[in-house]
Amino acid sequence: MAEERWDTYFLFMDPDWVPAEEDEEPPIEAVIGFWPLREDGEIAPFVSNSRYRPRDENAVTDPLDAVLRLAGRGDATAAQIQLLLRDSLMDLGLNGDGRPLITRAPDGVPCVVLATSATQRRLAFAPQWRRADLAAVVAALPPDTDALVNPGGPVPFRLTGGFLRDTAAMTGEEQAAAYERMRAEQPDRELAVIPWVVGDRDATVTFTPR
């Protein structure tokens, strides 16, 4: 399959980076990842930036990592986790023969290993990794097995197999309704548009400033 090329991205910037000038181009190391915008206007799943360098070992590495940390503090809902799971690409840990790597969570529950970004993948161990969306993760999930998310990071999180399957089975109407509820709960934030050069191409970038 030919690699898709994108001309427009919605960037997820490191919150510590602020442009000194209005048209300043963000350095690649400050870009946590991006959502490509398809020609039909739809936003593609989030892609982590392998060249992102967090400011410290406790920094948030991607949107899914962020919402899981918020959920651990009681500041995010299950619906918010579901929406990001459906709209994110993850890395599934594999053993030496290409099957899902099974480890145990701290409470002893068998789990597959998931990394939510390239940064989290570097912090975890697996003989191999495979990029996967939620549907592919659920298809590879053995019975009676949960998912241990970001096991090498500062905030590991266990998601049950049932929760993952229910999330993958959400209808388009259910997903749209969840988005509307989430938008209603969020205050309006100003968006800035700046130019960003990707390789030999100019790309339009939209980001949320601090």
Helix and strand topology:
Layout: E1 8-13, E2 31-36, E3 47-48, H1 63-72, H2 78-86, E4 90-94, E5 102-104, E6 110-115, H3 118-123, E7 128-132, H4 134-140, E8 146-149, E9 157-159, H5 161-168, H6 172-185, E10 192-198, E11 201-207
Parallel strand pairs: 1-11, 6-8
Antiparallel strand pairs: 1-2, 2-3, 4-6, 4-7, 5-6, 8-9, 10-11
Helix pairs in contact: 1-2, 4-5
Q: Specify the CATH homologous superfamily.
A: Uncharacterised protein PF11572, DUF3234
Largest sheet: 6 strands, mixed
Class by SSE composition: alpha+beta
Number of discrete helical segments: 6
Q: Architecture, CATH level 2?
A: 3-Layer(aba) Sandwich
The CATH class is Alpha Beta
- SSE string, helices as H and strands as E: EEEHHEEEHEHEEHHEE
Number of strands: 11
Strand coverage percent: 25-35%
Shape: globular
Chain-averaged pLDDT = 81
The CATH topology name reads Trna Endonuclease, Chain: A, domain 1
Q: Indicate how many domains the architecture comprises.
A: 1
**Percent helix among the residues?**
25-40%
Q: State Rg.
A: 18 Å
The low-pLDDT segments are 1-5, 189-210
Measured distance between first and last alpha carbons: 38 Å
